[in-house]
Amino acid sequence: MSDLGHDVVADSTTTAATDEELLARLAAGLDEAALSQLYDRYQALMYGLAMRITNDAALAQDAVQEAFTGVWRNATRYEQNRSSARTWLLSITHHRAIDIVRRRRPAAPLPEVDEVHEALTTPDVWPEIARSADAAAVRNAVAALPDAQREAIELAYFSGLTQTEIAARVKIPLGTVKSRVRLGLTALRRALEDSMLEEPA
Amino acid sequence: MTHDEAIELSGLYVLDALTPDERAEVDAHLRTCTLDHAEFDELGGVTPALATLAAPLAAPVELKAKVLDAYRSDLGAPQPALPAAALQRRVRPEPATQAPAHAPTWRMPTWAGWATAVAAVLILAVVGVWAVGQSSQADQANRRAQQLAQAVAAMAAPGSQVAILHGSGTAQGARGFAAFPQSGGGYVVLTDLPAAPSGMTYQGWYIVGGKASSAGVMDVGPDGELIGSGMQPMAGTDVVAFTLEPTGGSDQPTSTPIIIGNLATSS
């Protein structure tokens, strides 16, 4: 099984600190070396996600920078048994990037400017089903969704649209937006669980 | 927000596709509702997989220096480990201009119900003691009535942080609330609280990110009432809790909380 995070970082030593250990060091106090290592491991994943959402290099950099601020300020709140460090970092990045694109859409309900920091604390992440689901399996699962469900999920997750904005964009009632997203995510979960089962342990 | 309404929003919630107001309503529901919300975990577990759909892309090299600089300057300045500003999502009072339009309906029966319950206690206390006709007790009852009235006002004030408290274990049946108005000076009111065992005392705690800070030791009145005033929660407090501690109180809880409530912002 491959973990995308580690594919990208290609750790050269087997004795390197784990991500979770690095987060624990950040939580314990000033530790620039720990932050530096986390940065090297995740900058490409975080920047890639931020670029996909913001579609703008400067905004994506802002998102990554704000995300790291969230990481060191909230390292004490990270719960290892709930999610991997990778998921935690990516969820903070996602939240920052979404906030940034929403702030730039005049029509969107804006978070207050001074809520920027508040929103850094998104790390209430869920126990992920697939700590090591590979990108191909995810792509297959997403591709297998009915178009309407995939569209709703992508507009929400990657375009940062709110439910109201999705309803307006797709011209469907709010209730349909809600049910499409739930059905789509439920189907994705099932597909990912199945793909995990198929892999040799 | 009803339970069903919250569940309907589960998918959009885990994808971050709600406005701050909508999200706050769901958060408030999740804190206060005891029904099953497993769907949030189930659907939320899918979102990390979605992130892998974005192709990794190396950030410009200069970004690392910026991040490390920001780290040094952020942590160089004296500041709490959990900055208040970063934790106010859960407790930030909504601006008055926004609150009414989105005031979730679930809060109304809750506050109204509690106000009624507390008013009943207040009236019983005052009338009961007046009937005895002893002036010192009447003064005491008056003071207590006044405190209760202020506590109810604090609970009802827009933007107050309120925790509905429930007892368990030896404090089974105890109920009450803690209310912290924006103007400062919070209250805690508990009823049906058994007297602390000999050598023990009730101690309140503010829980911030899983860490406890003392809210002080408090005495139970002869009728099982506990009223604390002038309380000031730690910034970012999620939960208000009480434990039984050796007389004089402890620096950290030495036993499991027997009274607990999640802090939420009223509107």
Q: What is the highest CATH level, the class of the largest domain in chain B?
A: Mainly Beta
Main sheet specs of chain A? none
Give the overall form of chain A.
globular
> Structural class of the helix and strand makeup of chain A?
mainly alpha
Percent of residues in helices of chain B comes to 25-40%
Average of pLDDT of chain A: 81
Q: What is the CATH architecture descriptor of the largest domain in chain A? A: Orthogonal Bundle
Helix/strand-derived class of chain B? alpha+beta
* Count of strand segments of chain B: 8
Q: Give the CA-CA distance, first to last residue of chain B.
A: 13 Å
| Spans of at least 5 consecutive residues with low confidence of chain B | 77-112, 126-133
Largest interface, Cβ cutoff 8 Å: A-B, 89 and 58 residues
Would you tell me which CATH topology of the largest domain in chain A applies?
A: Rna Polymerase Sigma Factor, Chain: A
How many distinct folded domains of chain A? 2
Along the chain, the helix and strand elements of chain B come as HHHHHHHHHEEEEEEEE
Low-confidence stretches of chain A: 1-14, 110-122
Q: Biggest sheet of chain B: strands, sense, closure?
A: 8 strands, antiparallel
Count of helical regions of chain A: 9
Name the quaternary structure: heterodimer
Per the CATH scheme, the topology name of the largest domain in chain B is Immunoglobulin-like
CATH class of the largest domain in chain A: Mainly Alpha
